[in-house]
Amino acid sequence: MKLKGITDVFFDLDHTLWDFDKNSALTFGRILKLNNIDVDINDFLYHYRSINQKYWKLYREEKIGKEALRFGRLNDAFLAIGYQVEETMIYKLSDDYIMHLTAFNYLFENTFEILDYLYLNYNLHIITNGFDKVQHKKLTKSKINKYFKTVTNSEMTGVKKPNPKIFNFALQLANSSSSKSIMIGDSYEADILGAKNIGMDVVFFDIHNTVIDDDIKKISNLIQLKKYL
């Protein structure tokens, strides 16, 4: 069913348009090799992914800062696989990761197709908890920056999704209102509940078939947005 009255479409970036897991895995493959860290990459990534999610949750909840996030997720991943790494190397790997992350820019299937389609009739925007410089590089190097009128990130606002302040900031920047806007994202807590709580419509981008409240619109491929917009 097509939604009426929507003028502005807000997207999350990582895990929604930009394929974070794939690009991150390729980045780790590169930087571990560059620094002569001899580990089983699949074993490392298996532990890193859940540890990274845990640290991002703490970061969203304002319980840790950016540096603690960047150091802790790597340190804990190496501890989980029983590989000893000096603290100085953890910091170097953390810097190398950020430096090389945007060398890989795989997008989810049909990203360009859906952005081309939506761009004709809606104002498109980004709301992300990611770091300012890195997120802008992702948008530019993946060649999707041209679609978006505004980009709101947590470093600009001092708060992170699902805090209502970041959504209200984004709406003000876009010169729009919650009643005319919709949020598309992969995080049920940060994107979906955060946007719903200020009165925005939402679409949950869910490739994992998560069990959620039945009244939430869900898609598993971006092209399915055509059903609503």
From TrEMBL:
Superkingdom to which the source organism belongs: Bacteria
Coiled-coil spans in chain: none
Gene3D superfamilies per UniProt: HAD superfamily/HAD-like, Putative phosphatase, domain 2
Protein name: YjjG family noncanonical pyrimidine nucleotidase
Organism the protein comes from: Flavivirga jejuensis
